[in-house]
Amino acid sequence: MASGQSCPGCGSSNLVDDALYSQSQLVCADCGSVVSEGLLTTTRSEEVQGTDVRYYESTAVVKQPCRNQIHGLKRVRALCRILRFSQVIEQTAESLFRRAYEHPSFLNAHRPKKELLGGSCVLLSSRMHNWPIAMGTICSLLQVSDQDMGAVYLELVRILNVEPITTSISDLLESHCSQYQLSPPGVPEVFAESTTKLIERATALVELASDTWLVTGRHPVPILVAAVYLAWLSLNPCRARLKMQLGKFCKIAKVAMPLMAAVRLKEIKEVLCKIGKEIPWLRGADVEPRTVPTFTKDILQHRGLLMRKALHSFESELSQADCELNPNPFSEGDLSLPGDTCAADEGGEDGIRSGKSRPPATPRASVQTREETQEGQERTALLRDGVLEEGTATFDSNTQKSPTSDCHWAQRHLFVPPCTKNPRKRRADEAVLAVTGDEEISDSEIEEYLRTPQEMEDIREMQKKLMSVSDTCLLSGVNLF
């Protein structure tokens, strides 16, 4: 309300400010007549319409994505539709790509890295929604290496600070088996197989491989290919299938063969052969890798029992080998004699009947003279002080260590990771020679630098010839050089 003024029409002092577009007016609230209009401002604070406005504020619009971001979003959508993902997974992948693209690590990166970013977002979205898919599948679609994709994926997880759900190899099996085209129209009838049966048998093989340390730390795709191939052989182990190699099987099924698939197949067959020997109706006969698909069904059906029997048989053979290598019946620290045990056994009934216990026989090894005892105490003191003289024996000649205890621990277990059976040989560092320059020079080395009289005579003749030739050239004005 404006103070000190009144309406000239009705005399009311109830005047209000009414801003009409860019013009301010005083209007009477009672009669509605305009008291004054077009007032000129005299101070900066009263100026409303004439303030400075930046250009980008007057033309502000919603920021549009750049060309590379639009191209990346199209690639993300295409990957999701090729892999037949749901709409939720596709939207999550697009959201992850938009968030990650604005980060300086990806915004200022080169174009190949941005293409890898799209595949990493698809992989991360699938794992967040617990949809099993392997990184190798996306790498094959993008035609990139696993190392580059893995590096970008780890960087994406670190930047977005998300925790993806880890998928097991069994979860990947169903989606992997769907890639094999083994239906009757595409392959002969003898090679055709149901996808459901293939998944069931391959799952059992993968579980067996996991129990025998063949899966831990390995790339999943070669193991899956080897398991599917073995499952396909074992479902119908006819002659036509057994003659087909892994490479030809992958070509018929229209699946790419990984490099390490043949190695994984060999490892799984070795495990099946170790367990297959314990099948009762084989009566201990060796199972060969060539014929092991015939017994795969029985091995998988009784897997737990056969594995326990195989472990028990291996431990029995190992203990028998230890006994053959170390025939001494006495263990370390056992100083009793065989006769003492027999005597105790013979007198057991008499002792019980009479109610008296016979004193134990004195072992021969415990009878030592004072000199031997004193010598042993001195040796113990020397060992404790670490000053045992070089060349002295620390053990008695009768004490022998079992040779099997010196072997690698992997040889004393039936199922161990393959990397422990054949470990990589470490490079031996060459010993650095400590050369100070003060070493003595032998006579043979000095003779290498001394010239013989004949060599000295030849050098003198050569110098004379050179001098004569140079003098001749100087007289004739010819420059040798």
Give me some keywords for this one:
481 residues; Cyclin A, domain 1; mainly alpha; N-terminal domain of TfIIb; transcription regulation; 3 strands; 21 helices; zinc ion binding
Describe this structure in a few short sentences.
Residues 329-386 are annotated as: Disordered. Residues 369-382 have a biased composition (Basic and acidic residues). This protein is mainly alpha-helical.
Structure description:
The radius of gyration is 46 Å and the shape is flat. Helix 5 runs antiparallel to helix 6. Among the domains are: 1-50, N-terminal domain of TfIIb; 67-167, Cyclin-like (Cyclin A, domain 1), CATH 1.10.472.10; 172-321, Cyclin-like (Cyclin A, domain 1). The longest helix is centred in the C-terminal third of the chain and has 24 residues, at 453-476. Strand 2 (23-28) and strand 3 (34-37) form a beta hairpin. It is mainly α and 481 residues long. A 3-stranded antiparallel sheet has the order 1-2-3, with no helix packed on it. The chain contains 21 helices and 3 strands.
